[in-house]
Amino acid sequence: MILTFLSKLKEQKSFDESLDISPYAKMMGFRLKRHDDKLITVMKFNSDLIGSPYPPVLHGGTVASLMEMSALMQLFWERELVHIPKTIDITIDYLRSGKPEDTFARARVFRRGRRFATLHAEAWQSDLNKPIASAMLHYQLIK
Amino acid sequence: MLLHIRAFPHREDRPISFDGIELKELVFMIPHSRRLGLQLMEKQGDSLLIEMPFNTDLEVIPGSGIIANGAITAFLDTALGAAVYDQFESYRRIVTLDLRVDYFEKPLPFSAVMVKTRCLKITDQMVFVQGDVYCDDASSPIAHGVAVFSYAEMEKKS
Q1: Is B34 near chain A, with CB under 8 Å?
Q2: What is the ipTM of this complex?
Q3: Is B131 contained in some domain?
């Protein structure tokens, strides 16, 4: 399902699509965007993403979740996959508190072997040069 | 598994309260925790047992009954934060410095997920915590998380 969805998107030069095909991604307001040939995962702000009300700050777990989604999307994007890779681990560094606004994430494949892949992801808001979090992730590619 | 440290044996029987608000209520008051449906089940000595009930909104693939990894990560983040709050006599602002999650296996389909926290160490600026994630069997975790939180000095009352 997700594989078909992505292979259709690969044919388009630019897009901004919701990931509503997954209930969890829908709940989180995740979207997938292609901009200047880069793949960006977006988390549209909604009040359910708040982790601390006064002053309003994004829940750190939601930012982690966004980076995880962006890493998975990047893996799918770079090569055809037969099944969904399994996350082995994620290590998140929280750098700045997230404001109550849209958040973006992109990921880079550091190394991709036959069985495993290592990725780095980062999340930002208004300023790409001021990431609010970064993460290292490992994926298992084959069952 | 990791270290089996009972960090604060002298605090075991202390009631959980922040300016009259119980931790249970505090955890519920966070909008994202409410969205995930988190519930504090019990406090066992120095550790907290927190539940995330199954909800179809948390599925990655509709109908699969499998809760998204991301939801488990966010759940752990909250649960470990709650474990940190539990170390203080009154409310303090806390900041997650880092969080590491190992995913051992998929959660059971259509099953609630539990986190059992443990506080490893508290220093004058930081709190080190960990949590085991499991479905029906506490001795067989499906994931494990470790986090470091920094905390603010006592905030002035205005």
Answers
A1: yes
A2: 0.93
A3: yes
